[in-house]
Amino acid sequence: MLSILRSLVQEVNSARDLQEALDIIVSRVQKAMGTEVCSVYLLDPATNRYILMATEGLYRKAVGQVSLGYSEGLIGLVGSREEPINLEDAPAHPRYRYFPETGEERFRSFLGVPIIHHRRVLGVLVVQQRESSRCFDEGEEAFLVTVSAQLAGVIAHSEATGAISGLSLTGEEARDVSFSGVPGAPGVAIGAGVVVYPSADLDVVPEKPTEDIEQELALFRSAVKAVREDIERVAKRLASQLRPEEQALFDVYLRMLGDDALPGEVANKVREGIWAQGALKQVVQQYIRHFEMMDDHYLQERAVDIRDLGRRLLSHLQEGEQTHVAYPERTVLVSEELTPAMLGEVPKGQLVGLVSVKGSSNSHVAILARAMGVPTVMGLVDIPVNQLDGKELIVDGFEGQIFASPSDDLRTFFQAICDEEDELVRGLEVLKDKPCETTDGHRVSLLVNTGLMTDVVRSLSHGAEGIGLYRTEVPFMIKDRFPSEQEQREYYREQLEAFAPNPVTMRTLDIGGDKSLTYFPIQEENPFLGWRGIRVTLDHPEIFLVQVRAMLKASEGLNNLQIMLPMISNISEVEESLHLIYRVYHEVREEGYDIHMPKVGVMVEIPAAVYQIRELADRVDFLSVGSNDLTQYLLAVDRNNPRVAQLYHSYHPAVLQALVRVAQDAHVVGKPVGICGELAGDPGGALLLMAMGYDSLSMNAASLPKVKSVIRSVSREWAVQLLEDVLLLDSPHVIKSCVDLALRNAGFGRYLRPGRSGAVAYAEQAAS
């Protein structure tokens, strides 16, 4: 069964559209299980009805014509119960619904399993048999459940592809197609999608026709000739080092490049009107599928050779392709994996939004996007990238959502958010030079998180009182090697000078987890629980010492440097780090630099540190909570993983209680405590943190004016009462609703961003 399942998944994965995928499923499952009927019913989101989309065994004319209500018939029962239903005599069941046009009156045994993807029921997979005496056994039921689970993602992707193309399951026009990901940079953007592709990746080559068949054939022949020459050159160079049987592998490649082999099939598809890259993709994937389905292990491995050959040909095709990407006035850049270089290709002033299938909110591109103020969504699952080119897109960077082919109502809704944001930012400019102080005189320092010089410019214009977190890994990420001491010193001096005499807190190099350096790769099965942060730099003191030396020298004459240690989990890490910092301090002083010993603090972002606050505070000058990491470690949720991101919640009771404990314990021993992370930049979260007693809040520059406006408009007594109320609640969603309601009642409803549900509800209401 395993080999059958693998072959089935491979075939379905290579289907060109949803209908072809469904036809393959019903045909192969019927054959594998030896049943008389196999059918797929999909739930149409537009009508909330199950539609017969493919069948093997029922009358084909019923496909697309038969539909059932959400809870109607046995199909509706399987979907609503979200579990298999196995019956010997289906017509005797009270929920049985008979459709004459299907011809199913002949079949009595029934087994239906739900098709579920990310908790959403997509449809029902059904097998039927004529004999009433036959009851599908446990093995058959388990196989069908396995098939359903394996194919759910493929069906979801194909369904989305059709929807973005503009058609629903019923063939009607589809609008407001939405996808959920991870917020990369806040804001809302409306523009036209421009899809950019990494080079030599067959999987992302789009399907498109060609009007100049001869030109495409010429390009392909040139690519074949170039690859043949490459292989012959390599074979000749290695001839003296290889045995005859190893040398024969090059002959295999050359035979595959013969006119009657792969090139001939590609040329035939080009003559059918497909551009060369698309034709190559189709042929190579067909070859790979056939080889991988073979039982012989040696032949299975030849799929690797085919894939490699395909990449080589594609690389040459792309070199010969003289295409100019046209960027519209309002460009939303879309890619499987965005790179900084891709951003740089868009003409200045035309980039309004970013969408990346891969990546996280901590990736280099996300950091750049926040610095540039470009709304960004990352980590999108099951999104058919190829279909987004040229489509009108709405990027909701607040909620991590995108909408394709929006209706007029939805576009109007989000345009109002854009206009409101612009107006709000202009209205808050008057607060730039005013202190962040409550109505009853409680003062809180508002700091910013930075990584690039562009962050600094925006931060100063928004009235930041210093830097609460300077991500020193950013200068490391934008280079192809470790930056020298002098290069680091120049980066750090820019930041220190820009904010002098206000404090600049520099976090020592924090790589690992989802932050990697191309020239210092860390490959681990569980990177978030592995070698990252202070663990890396203490294991490599040569990196740590150079960085601290650059920081200290950069602070000469300014003396506003503070050093912060990331990912501290025990006291020995602090003591070892302090030993190295003091050593460098004395060395730099001996070199003649007139510097002061900077304050040193630790980040509280591992749960173990929450329970060692007093011991940590005895050894350092200040503490700063990294709320993003602390939240994901407390909840065991990777917030950059779209599959579980909905479980990540900064308002979780456990998170709030941990934050209260940290603030209380720090103040007992008389040490200042701040916080940096998303919660600090959320107006409601900032109020709770201020009530807990945090001395400083550090956030992205864009969030600072709103937070200052809210804190200046309430009393600390009011905020403390709100905190006491929410600490009695046990649901993060209820807590968030309670805080939002308090903000609305206080006149700050305009600061709360509507999510997807609000947008969809608005559009539906307007449409009705």
What topology does this entry show?
Elements lengths: L1 H12 L4 H16 L3 E8 L4 E8 L10 E3 L3 H9 L3 E3 L21 E9 L2 E10 L8 H27 L12 E4 L1 E4 L2 E8 L17 H26 L5 H13 L5 H10 L4 H17 L4 H24 L10 E5 L4 H6 L5 E6 L7 H9 L3 E3 L13 E5 L4 E4 L3 H20 L17 E6 L2 H9 L5 E5 L1 H5 L7 H15 L4 E4 L26 H6 L1 H14 L6 E5 L5 H20 L8 E6 L2 H4 L2 H5 L4 E5 H9 L17 H16 L4 E4 L1 H4 L1 H10 L3 E4 L4 H8 L4 H11 L5 H14 L10 H12 L1
Parallel strand pairs: 9-10, 10-11, 11-12, 15-16, 15-22, 16-17, 17-18, 18-19, 19-20, 20-21, 21-22
Antiparallel strand pairs: 1-2, 1-6, 2-3, 4-5, 5-6, 7-14, 8-12, 9-13, 13-14
Helix pairs in contact: 1-2, 1-4, 2-4, 5-6, 5-7, 5-9, 7-8, 8-9, 12-28, 15-17, 17-18, 24-25, 24-26
Subcellular location: Cytoplasm
Family: Belongs to the PEP-utilizing enzyme family.
Keywords: Cytoplasm, Kinase, Magnesium, Metal-binding, Phosphotransferase system, Pyruvate, Sugar transport, Transferase, Transport
